[in-house]
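User: Can you model how cobalt (II) ion sits in this protein?
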Amino acid sequence: MGVIIKTAEEIDKMRVAGRLGAEVLRMIEPHVQVGITTQELNDICHDYMVNEQQTIPAPLNYRGFPRSICTSVNHVVCHGIPADKKLKNGDIINIDITVIKDEFHGDTSRMFMVGKPSIQGKRLIRIAYECLKLGIEMIKPGVRLGDIGHAIQTHAEKNYCSVVREYCGHGIGRVFHEDPQVLHYGNPNTGLVLEPGMTFTIEPMLNLGKRQVRLLPDDWTVVTKDHSLSAQWEHTNLVTDDGFEVLTLLPNSSL
Ligand code: MF3
Ligand code: CO
Ligand code: CO
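Assistant: Here's the modeled complex, given as C-alpha cells:
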C-alpha cells in the first residue's frame, strides 16, 4: 500500500484518461431525458467507450459489478446498477464514469436533472457541487486531507445537508481505488500531507436528510435510510507544485 507519486509520463496518461472520462459525460448529457432507461444510458456509454474511445469501462466486472457505468437516481447514494427503469420528470441522477486508457484510470461523475426538478433537489445538487469545488480548490502541497474533509463537511452542514461517511474519494492511477482514502468530513490539521504528483478523486455524497445509508440486497445499490434525496459530483485531481490540476475537466472548461 502507500500513496503512489506519479511520474511525468504517468501524469500524461492520467490526463488522457481523465479527459476521456469527461468526454463520456459530455456525450451522454443530451440523452438524459424523461423516458430513457438507465440500461439504455449504460449501453450508449458502453458503446462509446469501447468503440469510439477504445477505452475500457472500469466498473464492468469490477468486484462483480454487472454494468459499465453507475446510475444513481433520487435517493440512491451511489453504485446504482443500470436497469430497465425509465427516468421520469423531476428525477435527479448521478452518472459515474470510469475509463481505463493505456492502463490508467479517469473517474468522474456529475448530476443531471430530468425535466423540471424540485427546488430542494436543485439546491442539494448545487450544494454538493460547491462542496466538490471548494475541496478541489484547497489542493496544494502541504495541505492535509483532514483540512479538505473538514471544509466539505462544514459547507454541507451549514446548508442543512448531511455528508455520507461510508464511501469516500480515493487515490487513483494504474489502480482504480488506491491509497489514500479521501474522506469528505474530518478535522483540520489531520491526515495525509499532500505532495506534488499525488492523484486522487474528491466525490462528496450529500443527503437532504440524515447521513445514514443502507445497502440493498443486490449488494451494490446504496440508498439513504430515510429515503431523502442524495447528490454527488466527482473529479480526478493532481497535486501540482503550486496547487492542483483537475484531470477530468474538458479542455477550456473550468470548475
Ligand atoms: N466510480 C466509483 C467511484 O467513484 C466506483 C464504482 S465501483 C463500481 O469510485 F463497481 F460500482 F463500479
Ligand atoms: Co471514484
Ligand atoms: Co466514480
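A couple of observations from the model: Helices lie at 8-28, 38-53, 119-137, 145-158. Residues 11 and 140 are 16 Å apart (CA to CA).
User: Helpful, thanks.
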